Amino acid sequence: MKAIQELIKRYQLASLLVLTLLLAVVLPLSLDIFRLNLIGKYLTYAFVAVGLVMVWGYGGVLSLGQGVFFGLGGYAMAMFLKLEASDPVTTAIQSTPGIPDFMDWNQITALPAFWLPFKSLPLTLIAVIAVPTLLAWIISFAMFKRRVGGVYFAIITQAVALIVTVLIIGQQGYTGGVNGMTDLKTLLGWDTRTNSAKYILYYLCVALLVGSIVLCRWIQTSKAGTLLLAMRDKEDRVRFSGYDVADFRIFTFCLAAALSGIGGALFSLQVGFMSPSFVGIVPSVEMVIFAAVGGRMSLVGAVYGTLLVNAGKTYFSESFPDLWLFLMAALFIGVTMAFPMGLAGLWESHVVPWWSKRKNKGKGGDAEPAGTDAAPPAAVAATAKPARQASADSALTKGLSDVGAQSAIPGSI
Amino acid sequence: MSKHNDSNKGATGAPASAVEDTVSPLRRRILQGIAALPALSVSGMAFAQAKYPTSAINTTKLAITDTEVTVGQLHSATGTMAISETGSIQAEQLAIDQINAMGGILGRKIKVIKEDGASDWPTFAEKSKKLLINDHVAAVFGCWTSASRKAVLPVFEKENGLLYYPTFYEGLEQSKNVFYTGQEATQQILYSLDWAKKEKKAGTFFLIGSDYIWPRTSMKIARKHIENFQKGKVVGEEYYPLGSTNFGSLMNKIKLAKPDCIFAAVVGGSNVAFYKALKAAGITGDKQLLVTLSVTEDEMTGVGGENFQGFYSSMKYFQSLDNDNNKKFVAAFKAKYGKDAVIGDVTQAAYLGAWLWKAAVEKAGSFDVDKVVAASASGIELKQAPEGYVKLDANHHLWSKSRIAMGMPDATFKVVSESPELIKPDPFPKGYQ
Amino acid sequence: MEFSELLNIGLMQGFAGLSLFAVLLLMGLGLAIIFGQMGVINMAHGEFMTIGAYTIYLGSHLSSHYAPSLVSIYFPFAIVLAFLFAFALGWLVEWGLIRHLYKRPLDTLLATWGISLAMQQSFRTFIGPKEVSPTLPDWLLGSWAPKEGLDIPINGLFVLALTAVVTCGVLLALNRSRWGLRVRATVSNRVMANAIGIDTRKTDRLTFAIGCGIAGMAGAAFTTIGSTGPTSGQLYIVDSFLVVTFGGAASLLGTVVSAFGIAQTQSITEFFLHGSMAKVLTLSLIVLILMIRPQGLFASKVRR
Questions:
Q1: How many domains, in total, are found in chain B?
Q2: Which residues of B touch C20 (CB under 8 A)?
């Protein structure tokens, strides 16, 4: 028994190792800097997807407003970069030199007070995490303390996404409006548009992403993770046991928001602009599909899902622009109807059993199972038992919770 | 391909003749003179390559071969902006087809890589990077909204690309890497305000726009002009969110303010709702003067002639312009895209892009961006533009005439006034900041 | 300015608020029925409205091309047709998709979002990317002027009347008809309703289809106000969601009250402030109230 647990443990780490190898070695070696920069951009969305795995897969709460937190983090970073790009010399042509160009266009003559903290990089970095977290705390505190959840929570987050978008677009003198903040060039004098800078930012992104996954996995395997699953499946029983359900949910939601904020900030750095089109309902729902395709219970799967969907989007919109939305639609419907556990679920239900069967046949022959196998996505929630791809509705729901419940066990022991 | 060329013969005006594989020197000179149709282009190209070897005209590793030059086209084929950008896509394609039918540029056929910005500014930025870094295109024709242009601008400046931008826009911008083939704000606004004052004796104005940078900047210029130069009065200034369809309260505010002239820059889906609301509130062309900056033939199909009847639009081009260039252009456009196709101001401006680029490249004798820009800055003229003679200013904008046209019940425009001279583009107008 | 003129403006402004209320209510009604009675959020709601709008356009196109004499009367028939089209499609969607997902309400959000994407692209591919506007019969255009200086928009009157009819119809049906009885039984206790012989699956399907049908009618009515394009649905759904969220899920009354509140706030602030500011103010107010009452104005009394 102990041996099997050892194996599972190693296997979990292995899946992360494979992902790290892929991101840090294989992709940089095989892609040119333009494509790698694209991957870097996708990876910033993966922060959101990883957060969604925690909130949605583990917490059982679907948020359709994660774009808000991504956007807030991104805007915080963009404000800092924009201020740096708007020094009095380059903006000498404006009526008020030294303020961002869009303020000048909107007849604002002095830097608004809430922009002042963004003159400092440390304060900006704090804001990147603190602002999304604070908003998440306010929303989730109001909701979860009153036991609002499920579909209703989802549409409230959506309403928040809508409102924040309208606010950003409407207050264009302070936010850049529909155009967003463009033309971000340097970070403390360091040109972020050069190839070397792109490589550095890419690796920063990979490192932070892997770090976030480790953090989330640590939380999953702690007591909090077990409780999260428990309250997802039988909220009342957890409550009766004396736990405050709301607090755990609030914590997870804030965690996801903070992760999204980091993703947004990295986006602004790598892409060089931020716009309200990441905040609204559409991008927020798309981000959910990244997590759903990868597997809503799998942190590593979420990254693969994000990469796959975005690569698909880029490829198809280049080659068959008309087909792309149909394909995306099929993805939404297919994933929810046929593969609710996403790629990670398929891996669990098909590849793992096949592998163990083969291994049992040639006992001792294959010592390193996962490390050599680079391509397919590995599941974090690795259990010896496959996810039940039951067709009946009730069996499916049960299957979802089964996988989740078991996944928490190995780590907590 | 050949079908299109046939239909374009009238437009390009070049005679057809037989091809021979071997070409005598004399024959060559003749060919040089008429540099013509696709059938001829094989020999024409052989000649052009002799005069313009690829190594000489392309020193910056653009995607140019002995027979082809690659350009990019970056518009929204999907999403909310597809409505507006379809016309531009079609016009650019038409211009490129016509140029190819004439033998291309420096003996090279134009090959187009189409990218879809999907009405999403980040996607525009991503695709522009792809076109410049991956595909090494010699020029890009594209973008429509200011937001998409702002998103791609840093990319073009960093990678030293070349963008031809077709839409009338707010000004306040001048980039080495962008040519603006539509009007900037002052060209469109000042003439129409002066017209309203002089011809319609308008003294009080009500300014209405969608809430983003273009209407805001335009109205700022309009207000300064009305208050400081015309000594008139602005009795109301209102902005509504993009996509807003609820104008009930606005109608009452207009009735309360009783302006001599409504000056409007409402865009997109709001546009239709705005004019329907005017009609429903009893504010019609026979009782109220309205001048808009944002209704072209494209918008008219949605707004409907019955709702815009008697109102005025200020543009540099209308499909009904009566000149030979325009008749050829409209005929060629309809031959390619069907008789129901309509041509708006931006569509025509998009059509100019490829021709301006061709003229600049031929003047420079090179596809290198720096040389093309230098050649353009020293003055490029287009005599065959559908809107009439235009020329490129050193500030990368076009000198053009402004026109005022009245909406007719059948959703066409009747031009009622035209500026006597070409108006100089002034993207950073003094006294209007 | 004279008193009578101010009175006219006041009256017209009152009507503007009222007609915005009608618009919002009609938008939210279909969504509210489906959400309130089934707990399912139909993210393709906006696209069902667009179907209705395209039906009107089809009616206008056909009648003006083949039977010009019918141009003045096609509109009411096309509205009925819009309901039927959307109803039929809703029926199909429920049968093909939604019924498999009742146990996983969050997944219905994603699945119906997929449907909405597919529908948008279908509109674009098969109808065209350009916005269209049907030729409306003359009796729907212009304004009704009972006296000098007072213009009441006819399209506003029309939407108001339609909303009144549809809302009353739905309320009557819910409280008086057999379908309503079954729906109410199913909402209260699905298992028990099943046990006493109510076919809850059929009830669900009918409810979903009716909700979609009403969305279709709403879309049809809005052709008198705006234009229709492949992505119009995205514009509609935003307001629909706000109305339903703000009203709370449980009762149609909540939807009515919330539509009224939002419409009046927006229309009054619009008159005294600026258009964009009004929207921001209204939305901020909604957020504030949602923070204090996250379950909406009329919370569900059903035990979870």
A1: 2
A2: 246, 248
Residue A116 has pLDDT above 70, yes or no: yes
Q: Does B78 touch chain A (CB under 8 A)?
A: yes
Q: Is C145 helix (H, G, I), strand (E, B) or coil?
A: strand
d(CA A282, CA A273): 19
ipTM value of the model?
A: 0.85
Q: A178 and B147: CB-CB below 8 Å?
A: yes
B-contacting chains (≥3 CB pairs under 8 Å): A, C
Q: Which residues of A touch B158 (CB under 8 A)?
A: 193
Clarify whether residues B296 and B382 are in a common domain.
no
Residues of B in contact with A182 (CB under 8 A): 150-151, 153-154
List, for residues C54-92, the tens digit of each pLDDT value: 999 998 888 888 877 877 888 889 999 999 999 999 999
Q: Domain of B244: which CATH number?
A: 3.40.50.2300
Q: Residue C246: what pLDDT?
A: 84
Contacts of residue B241, Cβ cutoff 8 Å, sequence gap at least 6? A166, A169, A170, B210, B211, C275, C276, C279
- Both tokens of A359, joined, read 């291994």
Cα–Cα distance measured from residue C136 to residue C157, given in angstroms and rounded to the nearest whole number: 15
The verdict on residue B108 lying in a domain is yes
- Minimal CA separation from A213 to chain B, in Å: 26
Rounded Cα distance between B335 and A393, Å, is 56
- pLDDT of res. C300: 56
Residue B233 to residue B261: CA distance in whole angstroms: 11
Residue range B44-71, pLDDT digits in tens: 555 556 677 888 888 888 888 888 999 9
- Least Cα distance to A136 among A229, A243, A260 occurs for A260
* Domain enclosing residue A67, as ranges: 35-340
Determine whether the interchain pair C245/A159 forms a contact, defined as Cβ–Cβ distance below 8 Å: yes
Q: pLDDT (tens digit, 9 = 90+) per residue, B308-360?
A: 999 999 999 999 999 999 999 999 999 999 888 889 999 999 999 999 999 99
